[in-house]
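Expect chain and fold; see below:
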Amino acid sequence: MNQQQTRLFVGRSNMKILHLSDPHLFADDSSTLLGVNTNESLQAVLDDIRRRNITPDLFVVTGDISQDYTPESYQKFVDYLAPFKKPVLSLAGNHDERPKLKQYLSKSPFTTAEQMVTEHWQLLMLNSHVPGKVYGHLSEDELSWLESCLVDNSDLPTMVFTHHHPIPVGSHWLDQIGIENGQQLVNLLSQHSQVKMCAFGHVHQSTDRHHKHINYCSVPSTCVQFKKHSADFSASQEKPGYNLYDCTGDGQIIVNSFRVDNYLPSVNMAISGY
């Protein structure tokens, strides 16, 4: 595998990571997903970050950046995030075209590197993307690469990011379209004590579950949310949001999940899929 590594010098022991996911952008400014204008909702999220005076050291984006697969949708994402002048580490979701994502999100400060190493932390970005499929899968090569990174950097506290969820989140329909071999990932991560968190998108809701020494954490979508604990597809009227991870020099992570205060999405509850 030809995996890319990048290094980030933070300059202090604490590091703040802002986690975004599932913006589902369109080339057309007026297009909507389940009634929500996804361009407007992402801008509302970014405005909320500014209003709260949150200054992350980097952004991590866990996929489904585009809804219509267009170059314009990826360029819009670049244009929205560029004013922050912070590194943006991205991976592909099931709605993305991975080569196109890499084309548009690989010019500094944007990167699609699979591994980022700082003075105190290691971040690993896993590719669960299966072309043409909604569910995710981790190849044997991907899992072998992950294990080698964990073995080679056993002294660095590690966060793992993926698009699809490796563990059940309690919604039957969503749990049919997570990482189909997610238990392999869970078993592997459990063997390495330096792994502190596995964070993911895809589920359009905030969840937080501990298994052994690892926190498995999902992030709200920047557009429409999915109703928790639902057997079948069901949208929610919850507001868009994002997560902030305050990573300390001694390997601890403080998780804060935010919702946009002054934006109310117009969700079409009658639509039964996306």
Remarks:
- The CA atoms of residues 64 and 95 lie 5 Å apart.
- The domain at 5-259 is CATH 3.60.21.10 (Purple Acid Phosphatase; chain A, domain 2).
- The longest strand covers residues 241-247.
